[in-house]
Amino acid sequence: MHSATNARTASSGLSVHTPGADRLGNWWLDRRIGEGRWTHVYQARPRGNCHHADYALKVLKPEYERDPRAAGMLQREAFIASQVSHPHLISVLSAHADQPPFFLVTPRLPGTTARAVLQKWGPLDSPQALWLVRQTAEALAELHRHNWLHADIKPDNLFVGPNGFVTVFDLGLARPVHEAAGSSYLVGTPAYLPPEAFSAAQSWSGASDVYSLGVTLYEFLTGVLPFPDADAETLSAAILMQPAPDPRRVVPQVSSRIALLLRRLLAKDPLRRPLIDELVAWLVDLEIDHFAERCAI
Predict the structure, then answer these.
(1) Contacts of 82 (CB under 8 A, 6+ apart)
(2) Domain 112-293, what fold?
(3) pTM to 2 decimal places
């Protein structure tokens, strides 16, 4: 962190500058390992040099500390973590979410994002894609059971470990299911948003996450989006009205069963998409069907 940040946070009693290191609360910040629109992410360790830097600390950028929307995202992540626990969902170990500086601490995960996997290796084989998406669906099922939508499922928000273990993270845009109806603001990444996000006549529901997961599966298999991320007007019209393309036009070896699944996941009508528990069972069945083809990522 730069000195201006240190001076401000030190005045709150939460951070002091030490030669060669920064401290935020009870955490030493070793180095920056990531950055989002509103946050910096640091490799961190608890106070005391005997500890390993096995943690990730996400802190709101100084320029957003007075932005209630940005602060609310970190507060939401911390709150959801106190309610929902699942092996494939990121856990929050510590948080300072009541006043600046806003930050939260999670385990530092080995591996990389699914986005980075796609960028390095290109489209995934069907068994690999199904494996990653099934794990993601299991995390979403637990969120939905607690009446939360993730609302921003995409490869960038899926962390893939060296053994292929998926962790869903970045819950800053999550929203309660019971508050989703009638939402008038657009959040999330446009290319992954469901048709209901662009229509005042439809409400968000668990089926909205299912759609975004369908876009993610399509991208895993083909390396491209079903509807290219063009200008906002063209993109929203395509998501609302154009039939989802058949992935076999891009990758002919995709099975007819997977193509059928994608057709259901990307249905315009939320009621035609599978429920999340039905989806998990469907994915398990497809995984078994393709198990012999699976190889390590």
Answers:
(1) 92
(2) Transferase(Phosphotransferase); domain 1 (1.10.510)
(3) 0.89
